[in-house]
Write a sequence for this structure.
């Protein structure tokens, strides 16, 4: 049975509008910095998504900024009320993604809105699309900031949907980083490059929100099946013009072509998920474009990476945290949950646990850092089961008062890192080397009950009957609800 | 006169001036093709009036160098192998 979901970007825009999470901008906005600046400010204010209806130099095109940059918008995308608490959003996501994978269904070209306009070969010009100059000083115009790149493993046929930023170089060329440890990177560098074979790709811009979430999430199954699982029914796909790849039929814009082996061209700098421009201009993978298809009056999607919170930080923190929760539970660790604050740009993993045995914090850290996703995490903070991991005040209190600087901080050197870490040295960034840290915020088990400090709060320092009376009488005392 | 910008990969003091060198230039002409990139063989100079076009250099993370340079574009260079153009 289908879950509640938005079939395409346009239905999602209506949903955002009905929920008061959208601002429609009718006045002309310049794609050269102004549009990016609006989206950036919206992210920093955690504001409603801007829907730009009038883009300078590009009549007939529209853009949606910051589509999933808050938990309210994420809840809405999952068919929940915008004010759904974060743990409940997590539970709904876990339920929806714990079922049976659902294969996609192929639809005809006639049924695929993304085929309403088809540009091929010599007529292709990436500058016919309103790619924004997102930040002053970026290496170029980033057409692909909230999108997915579809690729296929040449031997197994496995599909990958992932978010790999893409900068417009010239009319028919995009460039962008494809990290070797990423799913597409493993495919490209281990299979296509040794065979000197170009890798077909399709960049999908303005897909439905669940496809976007799937492209961001670490999925153990192909993302098209993962999306179907979240929808509760098959996602509709249509074949590309220039390859056998399949793309969401209701997407706004599709750019098709090949990633070229053995050639790199300069890309970056760009605002990155950490909130910095860490990577300098460097040679990166080259995407040669052969076709562009799009809906009538297409709507570009724009994510603006910078200081928190943007889509990538929010969704990656959300989905990576839930993956770590699944992993730790599968190992029988008595955790209360795992939460990654979006403000940590998915670097800090906060784990709540019952301190059942000595060394449990260390075990948790080693499992997290040693996982497939380990390169993305740099700090693990373990708090006990009385701390609400979703309450940043409680987490900071636990860290500040229970993590002994001498005995509670454990550093792991020469670990897998990423080139995008702002605090890593240039040499470490070059080879993707990192370091990790565990903040153990558990009181040691060998402290006697008499020696262990007692938390003082409304919930812990009063008998139950006193708490109940106070809560019942709260409005009678003169306090609001 | 066309206005371009470019990103110096190191310090401005290390940039080869007045000899043919290959860099990536971005066309700053207003309009849809603004920021089109191209590899090009150029001569460049920190003297803003020496060559026919204006060049605005940035450092590797996008910071403006602060002064205008000038550039002569000898030819554009297509890095894409013929078979994949």
């Amino acid at each position: 049975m289908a879950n509640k979901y938005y079939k395409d970007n346009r239905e999602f825009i209506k949903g955002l509008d009905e929920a008061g999470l959208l601002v429609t901008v009718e006045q002309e906005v310049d794609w050269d910095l102004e549009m990016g600046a609006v989206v950036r400010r919206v992210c920093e204010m955690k504001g409603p998504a801007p829907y730009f209806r009038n883009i300078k130099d590009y009549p007939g095109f529209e853009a949606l900024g910051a589509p999933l940059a808050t938990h309210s918008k994420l809840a809405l995308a999952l068919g929940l009320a915008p004010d759904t608490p974060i743990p409940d959003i997590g539970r709904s996501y876990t339920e929806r993604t714990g079922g049976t994978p659902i294969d996609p269904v192929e639809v005809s070209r006639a049924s695929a809105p993304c085929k309403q306009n088809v540009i091929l070969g010599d007529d292709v010009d990436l500058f016919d699309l309103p790619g924004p100059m997102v930040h002053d000083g970026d290496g170029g115009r980033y057409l692909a900031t909230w999108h997915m790149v579809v690729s296929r493993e040449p031997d197994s046929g496995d599909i990958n949907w992932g978010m790999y930023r893409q900068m417009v170089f010239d009319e028919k060329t995009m460039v962008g980083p494809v990290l070797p440890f990423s799913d597409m990177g493993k495919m490209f560098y281990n299979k296509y490059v040794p065979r000197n074979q170009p890798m077909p790709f399709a960049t999908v811009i303005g897909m439905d929100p669940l496809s976007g979430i799937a492209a961001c999430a670490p999925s153990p199954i192909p993302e098209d099946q993962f999306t179907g699982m979240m929808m509760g029914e098959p996602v509709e796909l249509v074949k590309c013009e220039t390859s056998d790849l399949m793309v969401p039929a209701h997407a706004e814009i599709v750019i098709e072509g090949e990633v070229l082996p053995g050639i790199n061209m300069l890309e970056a700098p760009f605002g990155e998920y950490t909130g910095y421009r860490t990577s300098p201009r460097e040679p990166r993978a080259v995407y040669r474009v052969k076709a562009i298809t799009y809906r009538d009056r297409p709507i570009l999607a724009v994510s603006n990476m910078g200081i928190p919170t943007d889509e990538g930080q929010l969704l990656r923190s959300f989905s990576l945290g839930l993956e770590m929760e699944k992993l730790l539970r599968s190992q029988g660790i008595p955790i209360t949950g795992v939460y990654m604050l979006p403000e940590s740009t998915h670097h800090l993993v906060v784990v709540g646990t019952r301190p059942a045995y000595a060394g449990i914090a260390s075990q948790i850290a080693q499992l997290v850092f040693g996982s497939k996703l380990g390169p993305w995490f740099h700090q693990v903070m373990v708090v006990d089961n009385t701390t609400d991991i979703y309450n940043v005040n409680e987490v900071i209190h636990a860290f500040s008062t229970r993590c002994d600087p001498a005995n509670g901080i454990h550093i792991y050197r020469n670990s897998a890192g990423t080139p995008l870490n702002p605090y890593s040295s240039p040499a470490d960034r070059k080879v993707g080397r990192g370091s990790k840290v565990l903040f153990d915020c558990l009181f040691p088990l060998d402290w006697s009950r008499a020696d262990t400090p007692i938390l003082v709060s409304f919930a812990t320092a009063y008998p139950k009957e006193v708490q109940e009376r106070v809560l019942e009488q709260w409005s009678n005392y003169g306090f609001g609800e | 006169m066309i206005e371009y910008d470019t990103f110096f990969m190191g310090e401005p003091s290390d940039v080869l001036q007045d000899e043919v060198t290959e860099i990536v230039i971005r066309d700053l002409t207003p309009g849809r093709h603004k920021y089109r990139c191209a590899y090009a063989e150029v001569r460049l100079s920190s003297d803003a009036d020496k060559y026919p076009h204006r060049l605005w250099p940035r450092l590797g993370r996008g910071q403006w160098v602060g002064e205008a340079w000038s550039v002569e574009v000898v030819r554009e260079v297509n890095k894409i192998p013929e078979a994949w153009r």
Observations:
- Residues 3 and 79 of chain B are 23 Å apart (CA to CA).
- Chain B has a mean pLDDT of 95.
- The radius of gyration of chain B is 13 Å.
